[in-house]
Each structure stands twice: as C-alpha cells, then as structure tokens.
Amino acid sequence: MRKRSIVALAVAVLSVVVPGLLLAGGPGSSGREGAGLDVADQFWFLHRDLGPEGSLTVRLTAMTGTITYPPPDHDEIVPGLVPWAKVGLILKDGLRRGSPYAAVMMTGDHGVRFQHNYLHDVAGRPGGVSERVPRWLRLTRSGPTVIGSESVDGKNWVTVGTTLLDGLPDTVQIGLFATSPGDLTLRRVALGGSVEEVRFTQAVGVFDNVTPGGDWASDPVGEMNRTDWELLHHASGAVEQAGVVTVSGTGDIGPIGEEAPITTRLALSGLPIALIIVLVVAASVVRSSGTGAAGRRPLLTMAAASFLTGLIAVGVVVPVPRVAIGLGVAFALCAVLTGQLRELFGRRWAAVAVSTLLVFVPYFVATTALLPDPIAQWLLRVTPAAGFAAGQTLVEYPQVTAHYAPSAGYFPLPWWAGLLVLGAYPAVLALVVRRARRQPQPRMSRFNRSPRRTAGV
User: Fold this and answer.
1) pLDDT in tens, 191-214
2) In this structure, what DSSP letter does residue 84 have?
C-alpha cells in the first residue's frame, strides 16, 4: 500500500474516534453495570432490613398514574398509566444501581408480574389494573431463594415466580416500590421515517395490611424529584397515614438503560465517513487481483488494512470485543467488494459509485430516520449494509417499550446473519470476475486490419 493510502485509513480511524470521544463522553462511556449489562434501575423504595429468612405481605388497593403532555395536542397533563408502569414489592441487595433484585408487582397493562435481575420476566394472571386491583402481593426469602406470590383474598396464594439470587448477603432490603417509564410515541419525519418522543410519567401505588411492620426508610434508587411536575405538583416518595402507605415513583427497572443506546449511537456517529474512505482507498489500491498469489496480494492487503481500521476505530469508543471485531470484518468485506468491482469495471470511479450505492446509501438512509421503518429494515436485510448489524448493542426485550428500528440503533438481523449477507456479495462477485477473466478476448482478423501506409504511396 502507498503512503497516501495509509494516511487515508488513519484519517478514517480518527473520523470515528474523535467524534466518538467528544459526543459519547470518553472510552467505555456506555456505562456497563451489573453483570456486564446497561440497565435501568430507578424507582422509589420504602424499605427495611430482611435477614436470611422472612417475607413481606401487602395489599395493593389502588394504582394510578400521570402522563404529561401526550399526543395528539401535547397541551395537557392527563391521568393514566403506561403499559409497563410498576408498583409492588421488591427485594434488593442494597440501594446501588444494578444490584441483584427480585420483585412481584402490578403493571399498567400487563397484569401481575415477577421480575428479577433485569432480564427475567414471568407473567402472573393477565388483566389490566381495573381487573386486578385490589390484589395481595407477597415476597418470601429463604437463603438465596426468592418467591413472588399473589392472592385475591389474602388466603389462597398462587406462586407467580421463583428465582435463585446467588451471592445475596445475610441482610438485604425489602419493601414497597413504584416506578413508571416514559410515555413513548413516534413522530413522522422526512420521507416517512419516525423519531421517538418520550414524556415524563409517574405511577402511584396505595397499600395497606403491610405485615410485618418495622423500622422503615424511604429513599430513591436513582435520581428523583427533579422535574417540574414532581417539584410543583406531586413529589415522588412514600407517605404513611393511618396504616395506608402511598408510594409514588418514576423511572424503570429493566435491561435497557435510558442513555445506553443513545450513547452507543453517538460513539459510532463517524462510522459513515470512515466507510466512504475505506471504499475510496480500496478502489485505488486494488487494480487487478490476478490469478496467482502475487495477483491476489493487493486485495488481501487491503482487506487486512480495512479490518484493522474498523477494529481500532470502533474498539477505542465502544470497547466491546464482539462489536469491534464484527465491524472490522464488515470493513474488510466492504473493501474486498469494492476491489472486485474495480477489477470488473476497470475504472476507479465506477467501483466507488457502485459500492457506495450498494453499501453506504442503504446504511445511511436506514439509520437516519429518512424512510419508514419497514423499508429501512428490509434495506438492512438484503443489501451489503446488513453487515453493520455487527455494531448493534441494542437487544429487544418484551418487557421494555422502545423504538426497535434502525434509526434507533436496532438492526433486523443478528450480527452473524448480517455479516453472512454482506459476505455473500463479494463471494458472488468473485465468481462473476473469474468467469469474465476466463472468457476469450475477440481477435482481429488479418483481413480487417488497416493497411500499413508506406512512404511514397
């Protein structure tokens, strides 16, 4: 490779690293917590100590909530609950964010649930709040085993879920909680694309028959009481009066933190620029791969250099090995595809133009909310841009309401399938190039040759 090609690839690395560090806040800014997971862990907690054995039983008599400025007019604050608003009982290893927990709860529109350690969700009896309240809830601990139960009358109990929380200390925190994720809607933009809008919500649970009693503490897990609604109208917190406890809270407890997908997308905001540079350099370096080892050397050299470009650039801003290696492989396959196009067409500009239409354009329009979500998803299933699913860190969870679309960082194919789709293009193109190389070139007949002019004739 020539010196200017190496310099160009270095610029490609910087085009990812510099905006990634500036916008996302530095290396490793995705904030991995818990068991290597970006989690949401924000709620109001009225809690007390619980030893190795014990339980807490309550009756949930009411569940209400508030949604601020919902569509269509966005001009009023209305009573209501989002589907995954939660109130109930939770057992947790301390108050720190991301610590192990188990909870039995009523939700806004998904009935009674038993959830633990952010990933796991078990459904109890279905039904909305109006059908399920009042409801008795109970959490029982026996060593590492935690059982969540529900009852209609406080006498006949049904087990909703059971889990083992290994490593729990002798003393944990158990109590009443309330939380409510933002109200998510989509707004149409551009050519039919959509962007998400999230509004503040709050859930309120009313409990009685809290047994056993004890010394209680009231604390937020995560930040609370910072919005105008909480400061001026209804603060999140816990209030006890005549044996009735009211707990109000906002936030969520689940596998997707509010900032994690946004941070990852910002960290990779320079990826399209780096991709264009790799395509141009590949078209310049690879002129003819030939049939022997020496002929294939420029193509292999460019593939290796592109892999290192992606690996280094992504690895600095998103230090997740699978993501860095996967995007490095995607860059290498894109370079091979462009090199083969250069050999097929013979002209650098043609190779750059076609590879840009095949790789860059689908990736750009699908990830920038220009097109409707279904069209964007199909572009990332059938074009070489599918390979950039290797950079996906967002996972779809049924217990989390989110905008699972390319413009929000969610690809329709898993990383390995995306790389297979991308890899299929240079594989097929290699067969086309080989076949074109083997076809005999037309030979000019001696009768069609122009007569040689001689002096004096």
Assistant:
1) 889 988 999 999 999 999 998 777
2) T
